[in-house]
Write a structure and sequence with these properties.
This protein is mostly helical. Helix content is 65%, strand content 0%. The chain is globular.
């Protein structure tokens, strides 16, 4: 499942949270060892299995597929994790906004996980993990006006994506034990 396919399903299900933000959210929660996502799947509110209900079910099925793919990336270890983003053929402005949304989802998932596991923020420390979360919060503020379609921007974007990918794996190594402690 790629970004474009999940985005199409999201739009047909009339959801406002984009595919990148969903992926960031689940990635963050997986870093803490949380793998129950029933609260994030959409409820089918229609009794007659209307078109909307089918669209929501299709999105949920795709969401669970993406979730399982993310779980597999973390289980394999190494640094093969990649945020779910638009393809390189899309304009850089679009990809940068998706990265900003992905980081926002990750930061939101971090907050949800800390609250759910009742972890004191000070227990997480103020070292590398805190810096990464702060960096993700900064990346989440990117807007299309600050990005031009130049080669330097493309290189900077690729470096940001690489930083996010490696950082998520580091956070996974740091955070995954917190679920067992709660």
């Amino acid at each position: 499942m790629n970004y474009s396919d999940l985005e199409k399903l999201r739009i047909s299900a009339s959801l406002t949270t984009n595919a990148a933000e969903f992926h960031g959210l689940i990635s963050s929660r997986l870093c803490f060892g949380i793998d129950n996502f029933e609260d994030l799947t959409l409820e089918d509110s229609s009794d007659d299995r209307s078109v909307t209900s089918i669209q929501i079910q299709e999105f949920n099925d795709a969401f669970l597929k993406i979730l399982n793919e993310a779980k597999d990336h973390f289980k394999k270890g190494g640094f093969n994790f990649e945020p779910l983003l638009p393809s390189d053929s899309e304009p850089i402005e679009y990809r940068a906004l998706a990265l900003a949304s992905w980081c926002q989802g990750f930061v939101d998932g971090y907050g949800m996980s800390v609250a759910e596991l009742e972890i004191e923020i000070k227990k997480l420390g103020d070292g590398e993990a805190a810096e990464i979360i702060e960096d993700f919060a900064q990346i989440s503020t990117l807007d299309s006006n600050s990005i031009s379609d130049e080669q330097d921007e493309e290189i900077a974007f690729m470096e940001l994506v690489e930083y996010v990918s490696v950082s998520v794996q580091l956070l996974y190594e740091d955070f995954r034990g917190y679920k067992n402690e709660s």
